Amino acid sequence: MATLNVKGLPDALYRKLQKRARAHRRSVTQEVTQILEDAVSGTEPVSILDLRGLGKDAWRGVDAASHVDAERRAWD
Q1: Domain-embedded: residue 4
Q2: What is the pTM of this model?
Q3: Within-domain flag for 58
Q4: What are the strands, taking DSSP E only, across the chain?
Q5: What's the structural domain count of the chain?
Q6: I want to staple 30 with a disulfide (CB 3.0 to 4.6 A). Which of 26, 63, 68, 75 is the partner?
Q7: Distance between CA atoms of 65 and 42, rounded to whole angstroms?
Q8: Which range marks the domain in which residue 37 is found?
Q9: Dist CA 28 CA 19 (whole Å)
Q10: What integer pLDDT is reported at residue 51 of this predicted model?
């Protein structure tokens, strides 16, 4: 297994990593490994407007937040 040394890591950042690791019940090493794994293997979020076959032309020019607000108000 490879070893990674990080030089010049700010103390404040290390404390945040420690806190996050404790919250997830991991060691700092395990937490950093998980963060790196998520960063390099995660998929990029996709906008519904970028998907094919889902009526993106019908949504062109529509403000999604306003639409959701209107839908929520309709159920009140």
Answers
A1: no
A2: 0.55
A3: no
A4: none
A5: 1
A6: 26
A7: 26
A8: 11-41
A9: 9
A10: 66
